[in-house]
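Consider the following assembly input.
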Amino acid sequence: MSIIALCILHWPENELAYQSSELLIGRDYQFCPKNSIDLIYEFEAAFKTLSPDERTPFIYSKGISYIYIWGDNDIIFLAITNRNVQVMQTIIFLKHFYLILMEFLIDQEAFVTKGEENAKSNDHSRKSNIMIDKDSIKDNSCLIYELFDECIDFGIIQTTDYKILREFIKLHLNKPEATKSYEDENDYSDSSEEFSKVEKSSKKKSRKQKFSHDDIRSTKNKANTKDVTSSEIIEMNSSIVRTGISSINWRPKGIFYPKNEIYLDIVELIDFEFDLERNIIKKNEIRGFCFTSCYLSGMPVCRIGLNEEKLSITSSSHEPYNESVSPEIESDEKEYDAKDDTSSYDQSEQRDDGFVSAPNVADSKKSSEDNNKHVNIEGDTETSHYNTKVVSSVGQSTAKIANIHYHQCIDLTTLNTEGRVCFIPPDDKFMLMSYQADLFKQKKKPLIMIIPSYRIHKDSAKLQVLCVLSTSFTKRLRCKNLVIRLPVNPYLIPIRYNSIHKDGEMRFKAEIGSVTFKIDTSELIWSIEEVHGKETSLKMMAEIALDKEKCLGVTDQDVNDAVHNKIPSSQGGDTPISNAKNSAEVQSSEMELDSFYGVSDAPISSATQIKSQYKNPSHYNIARATFLLPSLSYSGLKVTYIDVSEPQLNYSCFPWIKYSTESKPHSSTDNSRLSDDNSFSDYLFKLGVSSYTLVS
Amino acid sequence: MSDGKLFVKSKSSEIRAEIERAFKKSKPHARVKIILKKILSNIMLNNNEMCNLMEDVIDLMRIDDLDIRKMCCHYLIVFARVKPKEAFRALQFFNRFRDDRNPILRALSIKTVSSIGVPEFIDFSFTIVGKLLHDSDAYVRKAAVFSVSRLYQHDPKRVINEKLAASVGDMLRDSNDSIISAALACLSYLHEHGEGKFTLVLDRATAFKLASDLSKVNEWGQAYILNLLICFTPQTGEDALSFIETIIPCLQHQNSSVILNSIKAIIYFGNYVKNPELVIPTLSKRLGSSLVSLLSKPPEIQFLVLRNVILLILSRKELVSFDVKTFFCNYNDPIYIKDTKLEIIYLLANENNVNVVLRELEEYATEIDIAMARKAIRAFGNLAIKIESVSDQCIEIICDLVSNGISYIVREATIVMKNVIRKYPRRYDYVVKEILKHHKCIDEPDAKAALIWLLGYYAQRIDNIDKIFDEFVSNFKEEPLEVQYVILSSATKFYLQVPDKGEPLVLKVLKWATEEVDNPDVRDRGFMYWRLISHVEANTANGEFQSSTKKIILDSNPIISTENDSIDPAILEELDLNIGTLASIYLKPVQTVFRFARKKSLGESPALQSHSLPSTATTASTDNFSMPKSSSTYPVSDYESPKIPDDNHKFHDHNRDSLINDMDSAFEKEPAKMASTKDKLVKKISSAALLGRKNKH
């Protein structure tokens, strides 16, 4: 790693030839004969000469390599180098830097809005500032310069831990809506240290509140960071120096909370694919994350027990693990202890010896149930001859959970030798670990199953969609925010867009939840707020009127083509988009007018346009579901105990655990800030020919 | 106050006036800050007029405010080179800062001074850096370490002479772990980019100490240590093994670059252990799964990982194990990811998993994404060539797809079939017939060339061939060069095999080529064919029609194969040591891309294992690119004296020797290229925009 320059660009609509990028902020790190501004022009030129599918994140032009990632709002983070750099480091750094910027620019903004009394401006600014955009970068150029300087020196990465950086960089954020005069600014700088203190505590508060609204009972812990930072700038800065260089470089000293809590939030994202034609599961994978929020004083040592004895398998099996058997058994015993304890101490939230208590009764009972289920799963894997990715050569146990990655605070060598997770946590939020599990071919029913069927009535020119929903998780659980999107392939099914607003053209009926039709993506959306487990058949019906003439022409062959993404062969196999364009060109100007106003039976052009803009027709063969299943970990991973000990302060700690299994749509949430992992998952059902029936 | 307003080009005189006004107020700091922000914004706007403010900005450094000073330093770094004389005055401030009790200020002074490439500043920084390297404050020491590498850019000799590099080396024994990693980063910079003037060799004790420090430094520090460990050459297998064992836990780190660097280090030390995969049986699975786990990251990281996976498949199959299923594409992967995954699927395909692979590829071929579908079809063809036992299956699938008559599929299938037929002559004639049914939708030069080649090859066995041929030939003059070449050779072939139908056609083509085409190469070729056909000895030997011409033109094609999946082992060895760097993306010899990069190689040691790479690799690849050598087909002497008056002819004389090879093998080199992975890699590289030009495939 040693990059020449780091730049943040803004480049909207890069497809347009005349649009050029705008340099928002940049920093040169090493001497280069060329000005970095010229290099950016060259980057642009090189980028434009490539066709879109050749644009890899690494572009080489005239001896210079450009490494870039796209952020939200057309922001590009660009690293320029002329050497054979450690490119993985560079790209990870860019990602981290992006996350850091989010932390610095967004959280503070949330704080700013909190500070504002005006509720209206509050809402407004939060909406507009969820993402970093051009203006927020420009507004905070000084802050970003500081970040540039602290994260990288001489093109070599120093640190990317935002908590550490925050200790260091005390510049306050420049907020867009404030209208302060110079004098005000002046006052600010005088009282800056006080300001930053207040800022900090209330920031924590605000973050906490954010956290609390997802199910965890928060205790409104007021952080009181008895930091060295209080007195003078000079000392404040030496504090970071100390933190950054101590062997525990992720946790500053002197943190104090009146109430000590640790939250473990285990989130599992399901990647699921089901082929409705062949009736098989094609993919069933879990990406799990353990997000931790830690509000603990001093220098605590946490120990976490997981029911995954396989942890040790993935970590190493090159040594015979005879010795390690005993601690495992021990931990199993502990696990049962914990369970017994929690069930007997149902009402008490927490026990002094530090064993975890589940937030409520239902959960603890459920957890035992889940464990049973988990055992079943294992039985399945052993009998089936399928080998998951990592199979230990020692013993016959199949590792379900694989590819565990730990936060840097976990000492990996002791983890390997002792087989338990032991760490000194950083303050506040971080991602303790991430893991993957492949549940493929485990003969396990999918959590949520939908069977859509489309029936095209040719004579009455109607499309009937029937969707049957079944759930297979335990009855006690409730699945929340279930949204099922059923595509209506516009190339196959001729919907009468011109009269879509009339009554009777579309009718929906659902046993539960509500149904809408989204015209731009041509989807039926069935949204259900809450659904119980073990439901066998919840039905939804939709009826859509079709264009009569075109409807008669639909044949089985068309269905077949549509399912296999083949575009009607009569049109030479070109993409439908270009066809739409061609036909649009043919239209006479008169017809265009007609269609614009939707008169003389011409279809409204805007609808066709919108339709043609929607780019990828293969989406029309995929039904999706998104949902949130609280208090279930699909993989069966459980935290059996948490033990927090602080040798000096010796306080008691309140641990909280939350499980959830999710399928998330493609949009970033605050979880994504903590990691560079993809924070979305796909829960797909691929339609087959059998999903369609033609009735004449 | 929105800083957006500051992003407006200003004049230096305006700003100067503003500074003056600011100082008339009682508390000028805030105002000064805003003015400085404005100046910096103007730097971003590339407003070089700001350099006129040098004196004013230096004056501002006297204000005792860290933010202001930082901004001033930034200004200096940008403009000091432009106005060295004025900037010189700033040295007095830095002279003061270096002894300031605030460590930040001390660090700032050395950082700034060493960044400015003006002799006075460099002199000054040489005088202070030595002292600051031993500063009591770690932060300052760290800054000083980086300043050494900065100074090295400006004056490498002096850095060595003043033993600065040595004293940075001493800091590897610093009590503070983050200083160690900073020193390492600095030394590795000097090592890799020092143009050979500085070489870092780690001794055993240091290397072991570094490895044991792994858990103490932060994630980036770990990455640097892992990266630098390859500067240590282990002398015994045990040493290497113990390193591998220390590094293995790092595979579970959250930071992907730590993972990739540990893989590199493990691969490196694997060279010094006899059969590491037997000593640590799970090693290959662990390496494989840790790479695969990175595939859940965003596409940029995935891409990088996939490129390195290709590298590892080519070089260390035995050390890293992969399951082909993990590389199946997701429908929402960006195209460059799909592309790379397809490449990996192809490389991993073998007799055991080929059925799964074929099923998956078939799905891609029907995908809506045209580029993807084409690539899938190409993969079918390559698999058919690579694994003989499944070639029937592959070809059947291709035939199936072609029968739908979708134009881009037919186009691609044509190109693919040409290769397949060269590998298995005469086996898949039915596909050619199927393709010819849909010949109307072939309009791209590549596909056209392939089809015309097929026509020439199948002249005898297809009935209505002259009509189809006529269609394609009719546009001869407008065709691109490569198509013209193929038309010429195919028309001749056609004539030789079916003289009665071919005669009018070949005459027409040759006439066009010699009389109406402006390109001298085409014209030359036209003349050559013409004279080959019309030569006196052409059909007199034993009364057989055109027997000697047939010998030349209808010679059997060089067989193509995919044996050369490997790149040159020496290049691979070096690429292995560059895992995770840009070179691993381009998959090219490091020096060809980065001229000044240091050549990395495995250090000599008694423990060094010579691993056997497929020995056929090099020979096979040379075979593919060489011309047909049999001397009988190389009748250069036959047409030594050209009698055709042609102005351009002499100019192109030197071409003639290779002419005959050109016409058949220039085209036939193409298929050989496509089949060979080596060239595909090169092609990929161009798609990775290395050459910055459009990839014609």
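The mean pLDDT of chain A is 66. Ask yourself how this observation constrains the way the partners meet.
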